[in-house]
Amino acid sequence: MLKLPTYASPLERIWHYTYLGICAAIFLFLIAPLMVIIPLSFNAEPYFTFSEGMLASSASMPSEKVK
What we know:
This protein is an all-alpha fold. The chain contains three helices and no strands.
């Protein structure tokens, strides 16, 4: 990781770490959907479907319930 020069002001240091945080958030936003698609691609079904085991782990979450 690149180090900041010793003459960097406190504002430059804050901006540097804020910039790294923004980059990490964007990277996570772009990579997170792959963490859903990759396990589903190994499913035996011809279409992407969630198995009962996958649905059981999200049943405790207060999201929309399927009727």
